[in-house]
Amino acid sequence: MRELFATLPDDPPPLPPGYLDGVLTRARRSVRRRRLGVASVWVVAVLVLAVLIVPGVQGSVQPAAPSTRPSLPDRLAGYSLLTSTVAKAPPGRAIALYGYGNGETFNMFQSLVVGADGNTYRRVDASEQRNRPSALLAPDGTHVLLGDDRGATDNLILEDLTTGGRRSLPLGEAVGVRLLAWSPDGGHVAYSAAPLSNSGEFGSVNVVEAEVARTGTLWLLDLATGRRTEVPTIKPAWTAAFAPDSRRLAVQVGQTAHLIDLDGREYGKVQIPAGRELAAEVGWSPDGRFLATEQWITDGPFNGTTGGDTGRHGTFLWKVGDVDFLPVTDAFTPPAAVQDVVQLLGWRSADTMVVATGDSAGHLSLTEVQLGTGARRTLSRFDTGRTCELGMQNCEVFDLHLAAGLLPELTVRDAGRPQRGPWPTPVNVVVAVAVLGAGYLLWRRTRR
To answer: Which of 22, 34, 198, 315 has its CA 20 to 30 A from that of 406?
Structure first.
């Protein structure tokens, strides 16, 4: 080191003009960058807390209070991964329950309810936990009843849309179940049940519906007491619809609709033409005079050749047919058939139906139809744009139900902005990781 310093000149060379000012300027810039980096880290931390905490606060989302009259948005919102769940943010009573999504490339389906008192959308988490089985929506829109399409089950799940709570309804033994109809007064549910030849899980294939359709016995469940009544003479039960008084119901076996009371006593029959089925859940007209029938989706469930898509639960809604009427007694003359209908969904009055209709492009609408005149009014349309499977596929609708008891007073509201509730936890995690990564990269950049 001494030798090295010995080689240095006695007088150091002069500094370039402005050198000291430049050094001071760069020093101040370095301090600013360092301070900016620290501030950025704090901003990122605040954003992460906001993402994780604010959307997840359940107390900030209250169920919609019942309005004077229930309503339906004039356009149903598209698919969104940001839709919260019933348990996390109860939506209040619902006007519609449906399956939504696509599985062309990979399965991206949601079981959704739409609020009757606000523009709320929620995923039915109990349904997703059972791999989205077919379900029923209560006539007053306050509950959803779920079975299990993937295997035998020993209970039904009743999910409360106003509180997010659940109630288990025991079935006595593990059986395959098809839910058929909910009485207008909300007190009883009709379902078909049968032991399954394979007691294990069936993966992603719904074979429960097909097997129970061929071998299932009718049961009546009292929701208040949990009491179950078997009707062994009604077998195999396929579709059912309660009378407007909730004390009687029609159940289809083969091509016959058996008319029974809540004790299982039969008092009449109505023959159904070949190739047709009793309209599920809402096939008995509000005046009690007629049964509404629809065309089979396939060849029907009773020939032993159909698979898991025998009914409307497991298929997308697209096939256009008609609704025809059969008199309950010979004293009544049925109205003319209603053409160009995908599915009967309920009644506004004895001479006004609400149906699902489709156009040539496959777009589904909810339509009000006047019997006799055939006059139509579109109530709402589904968004079937390419918003499913990350924008690669059109969204499809299946297992569609309306709150039948709310339809007589139903109004139509402007759709407005969808209220999807707090973000689901997986979305929060993804966003938090992305924000933390961006913050880390920014901090590394400012350090350099």
So the answer is: 315
Q: How far apart are CA 407 and CA 424, in angstroms?
A: 31
Cα angle 300, 112, 219 (rounded to 5 degrees) comes to 45
Q: What is the pLDDT of residues 268-324, one digit of tens each?
A: 999 999 999 999 999 999 999 999 999 986 656 555 433 444 455 557 888 899 999
Mean of the per-residue pLDDT values of the chain: 85
Q: Are 70 and 92 in contact (CB under 8 A)?
A: no
Which residues fall within 8 angstroms of residue 175, CB to CB, at 6 or more apart?
Answer: 152, 153, 154, 193, 194, 195, 196
Place of tokens 């008995």: 284
- Residue 369 — pLDDT band, cuts 50, 70, 90? very high
Residue 11 CB-density burial (10 A; 0-12 exposed, 13-18 middle, 19+ buried): exposed
Element (H, E) at 387: none
Q: Cα dist. 42→36, 45, 47, 51, 440 in Å?
A: 10, 5, 9, 14, 11
Beta strands (DSSP E) in 328-439 are 338-341, 343-349, 352-358, 364-370, 376-382, 396-402, 411-413
What is the spatial distance between Cα 194 and Cα 178, in angstroms, rounded to a whole number? 9
User: Which percentage of the chain shows pLDDT scores above 70?
Assistant: 79
* Contact between 260 and 302 (Cβ < 8 Å): no
Q: How far apart are CA 434 and CA 25, in angstroms?
A: 35
Q: Taking the domains of the chain in order of start, what are their residue ranges?
A: 18-56+430-448, 61-422
- What is the enclosing helix (H) or strand (E) of 39? helix 19-53
Distance CA 443, CA 4 (A): 40
Superfamily of domain 61-422: TolB, C-terminal domain (2.120.10.30)
pTM value is 0.81
d(CA 123, CA 373): 38
DSSP secondary structure code for residue 297 in this structure: S
Alpha-carbon distance values, 164 to 9, 40, 92, 98, 361 (Å): 85, 39, 9, 18, 37
Q: Angle at CA 374, nearest 5°, toward 370 and 380?
A: 65
Distance (Å, rounded) from C-alpha 437 to C-alpha 418? 30
